[in-house]
């Protein structure tokens, strides 16, 4: 068994229940996705208040927690069969299915209540984002492109942030929709699709055996790396166009270039040695933060 078949970011390393819950919801992924909402707020063109930031943070935390917990519930039988995922919270017994459903319920409550307290437009759109996030585990049962579905689930965090800011001031759905930085949303979507395609190479043989859809299972590891490089290229193109469209400057440009370098490094790593996928995965976590921080710094400086 090589390192790829053993490595799993959702693995439980402690019997402590709180730590098991943190693994269930992948707390670090939730934290790294928060900047997407903040960029949505910053680029919406509407004023930002502490209330908007706080409620947006709670909404993202609630939705991500609920969707990650539900993903573990929906994939229980799949994860149980896969040796790589056999140490996840529900499979290992660190948490019960009841525990996971409790997390889903609490996370969903936080999400919808936060959306309601933000504004009526945020609440009106909240079911759409909820369905996108919660339906992700079924994507691989239906088609070979679940990576794009995951990308949309995270990309629409940008949408949520923009609506959180614009919904209280705009007076029509049209004004709310045009407040969304769609180019940035696309950049996040393609970036996530790219790294999830690489990540799925680890389960290529298992997915083929179980009839689950993924790009690696469809076209093999080399084809998957090529597909990932295309996703990354579209991501950088989208971020670059966003810089021009939203009149951003040198800081955003530098952060985008550095993110492009990190994406290229991931492709080089997995092209030369597929056992370096865990390293590429961990390297990738900071990409979204780097791009987002560049935008946020510029907006904070008033550029």
Automatic annotation (TrEMBL):
GO terms (molecular function) for this protein are: transferase activity, transferring alkyl or aryl (other than methyl) groups
Query: Keywords of this protein's UniProt record, alphabetized?
Result: Membrane, Transferase, Transmembrane, Transmembrane helix
- Keyword Transferase assigned to the entry: answer is yes
Q: Which domain of life is it from?
A: Archaea
Q: Which residues cross the membrane?
A: 27-46, 52-74, 95-114, 150-170, 182-202, 223-243, 249-270, 277-297
What is the membrane topology here?
Multi-pass membrane protein
Q: Name one Pfam family in it.
A: UbiA
Give the matching CDD domains. Answer: PT_UbiA_COQ2 (cd13959)
* Cofactor(s) demanded: Mg(2+)
Which cellular component terms (GO) are annotated to the entry?
A: plasma membrane
Q: Where in the cell is it found?
A: Cell membrane
* Entries under NCBIfam families matching the protein: PRK13106.1, ubiA_other
**PANTHER family (UniProt xref):** 4-HYDROXYBENZOATE POLYPRENYLTRANSFERASE, MITOCHONDRIAL, PRENYLTRANSFERASES
Protein family: Belongs to the UbiA prenyltransferase family.
The protein's name is: 4-hydroxybenzoate octaprenyltransferase
Upper lineage: Archaea, Thermoproteota, Thermoprotei, Fervidicoccales, Fervidicoccaceae
